[in-house]
Structure formats: structure tokens, C-alpha cells
Amino acid sequence: MKIAVVGTGYVGLVTGTCLAETGNDVICVDIDASKVEKMKSGIVPIYEPHLDVIFERNIKQKRLKFTTDLESAVKKAQIIFLALPTPPGEDGSADLSYVLGVADQLGKIIEDYKVIIDKSTVPVGTAEKVHAAVAANAKVDFDVVSNPEFLREGFAVDDFLKPDRVVIGTESPRARKILEELYKPYVRQGNPIIFMDEKSAELTKYAANAFLATKITFMNEIANFCEKVGADVDMVRAGIGSDTRIGKRFLFPGIGYGGSCFPKDVQALSKSGIEAGYPFQILDAVMKVNQEQKTSILPKIEDYFNGDLKNKKIAIWGLAFKPDTDDIREAPALYIIEELIKRGATVTAYDPEAMDNVSKVLGNKINYALNMYAAAEEADALVIATEWSAFRTPDFSKLAKKLKNKVIFDGRNLYDLEQMKEQGYYYSSIGRTLIA
Ligand SMILES: NC(=O)c1ccc[n+]([C@@H]2O[C@H](COP(=O)([O-])OP(=O)(O)OC[C@H]3O[C@@H](n4cnc5c(N)ncnc54)[C@H](O)[C@@H]3O)[C@@H](O)[C@H]2O)c1
Ligand SMILES: O=c1ccn([C@@H]2O[C@H](COP(=O)(O)OP(=O)(O)O[C@H]3O[C@H](CO)[C@@H](O)[C@H](O)[C@H]3O)[C@@H](O)[C@H]2O)c(=O)[nH]1
């Protein structure tokens, strides 16, 4: 099938590449000319494991192309994916200007039947708005379908090629047939394509993200409570996670959820609730707890240094909002760094992939180390903000030689308490006994 993907960020580029992988003819459109040039010359502009291999293969096979020219790309395509940003507007609701702006242009371009598929995360009722925006200029028949994306950064390729489910919101039999055909190669293992109306599909995406964010936040509150009463959150997690009704996944406490999705989507759903006359009480609590959780490690650091962080040298391991990505949107590490700097500390950070992106935001407000041990050089304490695999099994003796004090504040609960006791570290983690 001939496909145009508009927007080549994490979702658009993965979608385009993975659709080319099953033999489709894909052209990806972006307004960012330098990004398009990079992709044309074979460079993947984001860090996403395993994407480079299939990206390269499909470019070689001439199934994957890039352009800034929306008109020529769309005219040749039967299917048009919109993978455009929907960032929070000033009031927290989703900003639809990117999606509706392109929809407006599409109406002027299309000359035959197209299926326009919204992959961006959008509030209930957006398909109707997109339909109206296209229809305002279109002289031909078209369908607008809601097909939310559930990929996780770091696992995006796998999630796209083998999705738990594909959700498709359409009431058009013609569009349904085309999408059934398109997604057939991705659901061979019996994972379902769930068809529904557009509004339910749009809400499914927000409900999934809000539920997962709530699950994490609930565990963060249980962890905070564990610290007050001397229980161990790892034990509680094991105890409840083995109940299949609860499940083992997304029960890991830490320094809050971040990323480009959970924070903005919880906020957007909350706004939609208010607009619809149903303010979600649970989401207000989730947002408040998560905001506090991001810097919950701060008072612990201050306590250790008797309230004075002036000129203390703090090493940070991990800047990305989670491992296996270079994405730093709403990364808890950035909130912690801001608070440390405010208190007069100096920060030296190391992240395997996200340092370039952070340096664009923080510049020389912090130091960037060449590796994890170099970051710890002469540091008064080490803070762990992202659970990259390399941080899970450090050489503790080597680390001890670098650090001024054997002190770790672990926002991701990477180490065994017994091990830290044996190694002689001061070790503060989330929802577990302090090793002092
Ligand atoms: N990042 C994720 O893990 C993820 C997962 C599922 C869903 N989503 C949703 O998918 C959507 C896209 O997210 P993302 O993370 O890929 O965004 P992104 O910011 O990484 O990428 C968006 C891309 O769109 C391009 N763009 C902006 N305006 C354009 C225009 N008029 N024409 C062509 N290109 C244009 C930008 O240059 C950029 O390359 C959002 O709604 C997001 O909520 C994201
Ligand atoms: O047990 C857990 C699991 C995750 N997190 C945090 O939650 C955030 C989000 O993690 P994750 O869901 O793995 O990453 P995303 O790439 O943001 O993916 C989420 O957001 C995407 C965008 O909407 C959806 O497509 C995915 O299904 C959804 O998992 C990160 O800060 C994690 O550190 C925890 O604190 N504890």
C-alpha cells in the first residue's frame, strides 16, 4: 500500500519504518528540513533501539523515503497517517493546532479517496474536528480514523511490530477493510485488532496512559508510606504483583513518571473531564503526588548534609526520563538538578544517550562526564535518576575510589540492601530501609 506519514518524531518515524518493513511504500513528511536531510542521508535522528537496522534496510529497498513536501507525498498515498505533536496548551489541554493545521492543508491537496489516520494522542471528538477541517476544502470522499499508538520509547520497534492490540476507531466499512489489510502482518500471533467508534478509540488511549500513571503513583504513595512505617516496598510489590488481577508490571516505585506522554496525557484527560462537567478527582491526586515525587529525594539529600548543599558536588547517573531513550521531556532528573543548583550544589551528570539533549537545555549549568565513573569523581554523593542497565551492576570498589563519600541516593531502587551494607555505603532508596 502507498502510505504517507506526516510527522517523523518517535511515533511517526517508527510507524513509517515499521510499515515499510512489511512491504508498504512509505513516504515520511516533516516540516523540519534539517531532520529530513539527515534521514535522507541515512541518519536516524532519534535514539531508539533496533530502529537503525530496519531504517537502513527499508531505505536501501527504496520502500522508505523522506520529504518536506506534504502535497506530493499525500497525492501519491492512499493512506495518510498523522503523527503530529499534541503538546499541552497553556491551560493543560491538548494543543490541536498541529493536527488541525495539517488537516486544513489536506483538504486542499487530496484529489481521490484517502484514509486519514490520526495516530497522535488527541481528546475525544478530535476525529470529528479533523473531518470538518478536511471537508472544508475537500472535493472528494475521505475517511478519518482514530488509531492511537501505544508504543513505549525504548521498545518502540517491538511494540509496533508485535503490539498487544491495535485499536481502530472507525464506522466506515471502507476504511475498516483497508486498515484490516494494513495491520494483518502485525497481528499474526492472535493479538487482536479492536474496532470501535472514533470517540471510544480516542478515549482508550488516554484511559490507558492515565491508568498506568495512576498505578505507578499508587505504588509511589505505598513506597512513601513504607518509609514512614518501616515496611519494604519490594516485598509489598512482590506480594501484590503476584495477584494476577493486579499484575507485576508498572508497580516499580521511583522518582515519579516522566516522558512526553504520561504527564501531558493525564493533564489533558483531566482538562477534558472539567470541560465535560466530570472533573476526575483521581487524576488531580495523581498529578499532585507525581509532581512531589519527582523531587522527593531532595529532603533526603538535604538531611544527610544537615540542610546545607552549598558547594556540594553531586554526581547524577541518568538524565533521560527512562532508560533506552535520549528523550528528556519531563525527566525527573531535570527537576532534581534544578533544585540542587538552587541550593548551591554543583552537578556533574552522565547519561549514555541523553547528554546532548540536556546540554541544549541546561548548557554549562552542569558538567557532563565522559562515563559513569568520571561523573562520580570527587563527588560528595551520587544520585541515580534513570535505571540504565550499565548502572545496575557497577564496580562498587572502583566507584568508592572515585567518590569523596560513599553515599548513594537511588531514585530507581537498583541495588540490593544487603549488598550495600556489605559494601559500606550510605544508601537511601525509595520505600526501603535506609542503610546508614
Ligand atoms: N513518544 C511516544 O512514545 C508516543 C507514543 C504514543 C503516542 N504518542 C503521541 O504521538 C504524537 C507524536 O508524538 P512524538 O513523540 O512522535 O512527537 P515528536 O515531537 O517526537 O515528533 C513530532 C514531529 O512532527 C513534526 N511536525 C510538526 N509540525 C509538522 C507539520 N506541520 N508537518 C509535518 N511535520 C510536522 C516535528 O518536526 C516532529 O519531527 C503525540 O500526540 C504523542 O502524544 C507519542
Ligand atoms: O513501574 C514503573 C513503570 C514506569 N515508570 C515511569 O513511567 C514513565 C513512563 O514509562 P513508560 O511507560 O515505560 O514509557 P513511555 O515511553 O512514556 O510509554 C508510555 O507512554 C506512551 C505514549 O503515550 C504510550 O504509548 C505507552 O504505552 C506508555 O507506556 C517513566 O518515567 C518511567 O520511569 C515508573 O516509575 N514505574
TrEMBL record:
SUPFAM superfamilies attached to this UniProt entry: 6-phosphogluconate dehydrogenase C-terminal domain-like (SSF48179), NAD(P)-binding Rossmann-fold domains (SSF51735), UDP-glucose/GDP-mannose dehydrogenase C-terminal domain (SSF52413)
Instruction: Report residues binding substrate.
Output: F150, L151, R152, E153, K205, F250, L251, F252, P253, G254, G258, K322
Alphabetized GO MF terms = NAD binding; UDP-glucose 6-dehydrogenase activity
Catalytic residues? C261
Query: Which residues are recorded as binding NAD(+)?
Result: D30, K35, T86, T121, E153, K264, R329
Which Pfam families does this chain map to?
Answer: UDPG_MGDP_dh, UDPG_MGDP_dh_C, UDPG_MGDP_dh_N
**SMART domains per the UniProt record, alphabetical:** UDPG_MGDP_dh_C
Family annotation (Gene3D superfamilies): Cytochrome c1, transmembrane anchor, C-terminal (1.20.5.100), NAD(P)-binding Rossmann-like Domain (3.40.50.720)
Could you list this entry's UniProt keywords, alphabetically sorted: NAD, Oxidoreductase
One Gene Ontology BP term is: polysaccharide biosynthetic process
Tell me if Protein transport is a UniProt keyword of this record: no
Q: Which domain of life is it from?
A: Bacteria
Annotated pathway, please? Nucleotide-sugar biosynthesis; UDP-alpha-D-glucuronate biosynthesis; UDP-alpha-D-glucuronate from UDP-alpha-D-glucose: step 1/1
Write the Enzyme Commission number(s) for this entry.
1.1.1.22
Recorded catalytic activity of this chain's protein:
UDP-alpha-D-glucose + 2 NAD(+) + H2O = UDP-alpha-D-glucuronate + 2 NADH + 3 H(+)
The record places domain UDP-glucose/GDP-mannose dehydrogenase C-terminal at 315-417
Q: Which family does it belong to?
A: Belongs to the UDP-glucose/GDP-mannose dehydrogenase family.
User: What is the official name of this protein in its record?
Assistant: UDP-glucose 6-dehydrogenase
Q: What is the lineage of its organism?
A: Bacteria, Pseudomonadati, Bacteroidota, Flavobacteriia, Flavobacteriales
